[in-house]
What we know:
By secondary structure, this protein is mostly beta strands. It is 0% helix and 51% strand. The protein has strands spanning 3-7, 10-13, 18-25, 33-39, 46-51, 57-59, 67-72, 77-82, 91-98, 108-109, 113-118. It starts with a strand and ends with a strand.
Amino acid sequence: QVQLVESGGGLVQVGGSLRLSCAASGLTFGSYFMGWYRQAPGTERKLVADISSGGITYYVDSVKGRFTISRDNAKNTVYLQMNSVKPEDTAVYYCAAARERRTVVPSYWGQGTQVTVSS
């Protein structure tokens, strides 16, 4: 059974930092692109960043230069370092495993972790 378990969400002030983690189990981690998506109230879930097994990354324009995605294939874990956060970063953040990058239909989803940026 595949499990993706996120942690690290919470309340952070504007301009602050937060690090999300996602521990994966039940899948061949190195065979998947790993991504972080987010969904704000009343909006669609959208890709924030993803990373290949070899470490090639992709970011949406709104987070470039502020967020960093990384993965540790030995620990089956993917991270999202969030710096200089803004109120518009407030959302539920989901970890996902996918067979292709920049997909809207990953193979597996985590349960999500809430990130709230206070001004």
